[in-house]
Amino acid sequence: MAMASAGANPEWTRPDQRLPERRPAEGGAPPPPPAGGTWHRMHYAVGVFLVAYGVTGLASAALLWGDRRKELDGYFGSGGAGTLLLLAKAVEAVLVAVTVAGIVRHRDMWFVPALAGWMAGFAVFAVLDVLDGRAGGLVEHLAYLAGFVVLLFVSYGLSAKAQVGSGAAVRASAGPAPGGGGDGGEGEPRRLTRTQEFALSALNRLPRR
Fold first, then answer.
1. Could you tell me the CA-to-CA distances from 140 to 54, 108, 120, 146 in Å, in that order?
2. pLDDT tens track, the chain, 209 positions
3. Which of 66, 92, 94 lies closest to 81 in space, CA to CA?
4. Biased-composition ranges for Basic and acidic residues (predicted)?
5. Is the distance from CB of 145 to CB of 123 less than 8 angstroms?
6. Cα(202)–Cα(66) distance, rounded to whole angstroms?
7. DSSP summary character for residue 27
8. How far, CA to CA in Å, does 103 sit from each of 33, 51, 89, 99, 118?
9. For 102-134, what is the HEC assignment?
């Protein structure tokens, strides 16, 4: 009887056959993040601020269209102020949409168009303030310009910080490389540029609460 049962299932008793490999259990630890990722959790704050600023600008232009048009009349005359304002707000709406897409897809580089666009706009108005002798407008536009420059610098530093952190996470999850592991491995992060190192150093020196 024992021989018959053994003969009925030869795969269980033949020593020359390899046992089937075990598959890893589902729901295990997720794979480590890719090295060189530049999205930091604080980029959410940067993106939300940009979206809030853009939406506020669009809403105020819709509610106070006449006042905004008069402001542009003082700079460009009454000829094409309305067209310029409409064009500027259309561009601003596109920048807000790109920023929202950057938040959803975790692409911090998609914040750059909005930051650069508003920086360029305030720089143009600052130059016009100098030409027209508007001291109050010059101070206001330079303050906004400086704020967006700082925000761009912070976003750049966060990207460098995330890049360093993602590379360290990959190396920690992969363990030591065979033979001691030299530079240039798969989990090794890309080298930071001097500007990234400066931004990261300045960001790390900010007071933490």
1. 17, 27, 14, 10
2. 445 454 555 555 555 556 555 555 555 544 444 444 788 899 999 999 999 999 999 999 999 998 988 888 888 876 778 889 999 999 999 999 999 999 999 999 999 999 999 999 999 999 999 998 899 999 999 999 999 999 998 998 888 888 886 654 444 444 454 444 444 444 444 566 666 666 666 666 666 65
3. 66
4. 13-25
5. yes
6. 43
7. T
8. 18, 10, 21, 6, 18
9. HHHHCCHHHHHHHHHHHHHHHHHHHHHHHHHCC
d(CA 201, CA 97): 31
Distance CA 133, CA 93 (A): 31
105-116 CB burial, b ≥16 within 10 A, e <16: ebbbebbbebbe
